[in-house]
Amino acid sequence: MRIYLIGMMGSGKSTLGKELAKALNYTFIDMDHYIEEKCCKFIDEIFRDYGEAWFRAFETNTLKEFKKMDNVVIATGGGVIKNKKHKEIMDGKCIYLSVPLDVLEARLEGDETRPLLKTKTVKEILEERIPLYEYFADIKVENVNMESAIKEIMEALK
What's the half-sphere exposure (Cβ side, CA atoms, 13 Å) at 68? Predict the structure, then answer.
């Protein structure tokens, strides 16, 4: 099975994903890091050098590569839901890690590595994306406490 973690930047997809993969004895993949390795550039450099449209196209191809894998937990990039066609490609369990705005803002305060935060606020991005996260989600879990969130996910996967 492929488990896709979706949610805002700062929602804990990578941190929780590593622990969830351990609990399931699955392989963990951080999609942004995977893309950075393939491109030999950091995400913010990819956005700067090639633009968001190019990055999103590369993201689509990366998701297609993941379809060949099994027993993986994939922490997707926060914007993977911007292309509704990705829902078809992400054929596994899609888990939305929901986090309250104030918690996201605290987690992301001073983070200079997020290209979209240079042009929009966390609140603007969240309001734009919530309906998309909910559209993609098979399971929605609030991730304020990682242990509780993992327990809830494990129950939902049974």
Answer: 4
User: In the predicted model, is pLDDT for residue 115 greater than 70?
Assistant: no
CA 158 to CA 140: how far, in whole Å?
15
- Could you tell me the CA-to-CA distances from 18 to 77, 144, 150 in Å, in that order? 15, 16, 11
Instruction: Provide the pairing of β-strand 2-6 with 27-30.
Output: unpaired
DSSP 3-state percent helix, strand, coil across the chain (nearest 5): 55, 15, 30
pLDDT tens digits for range 26-38 = 999 999 999 999 9
- DSSP character for 26? -
Question: Which residue bears the tokens 């054929």?
Answer: 91
How high is the mean pLDDT of the chain? Answer: 91
Contact (Cβ atoms closer than 8 angstroms) between residue 95 and residue 1: no
Lowest mean pLDDT, pick from 19-23, 78-82, 117-121 = 117-121
DSSP state of 28: E
